[in-house]
Amino acid sequence: MRRRRHLSPEERELWDHINRHTTPLERRKAVSTAADRPVKHPIRHETPAPEPLPHMPLPKFRVGQMADGARGHDLLPPVTDRLGQTPLRMDAKTHKQMKQGKLTPEG
Prior knowledge:
It contains three helices and no strands. It is mainly alpha-helical.
């Protein structure tokens, strides 16, 4: 992980001391400090401006003119209709109590 701030002089001195007295596990390129690296300037490529497209007018249209108004919708029916179409699901004990008049329907 790289640090966002520069090292203080004390930290730099400690790092240089450690760097001189250690041997790397693998041979790698020497890490250069920020002061050793040249400053990179961004390369600017001059690109020509794109040519404007010729102006072509849009044809006359009305919003929804291509929609088929005769077609129905594909939305779900209301909850009350869906519940009315579902088969009655009741256990035998509850059904027997309702038939005997001991239980009144809720809906």
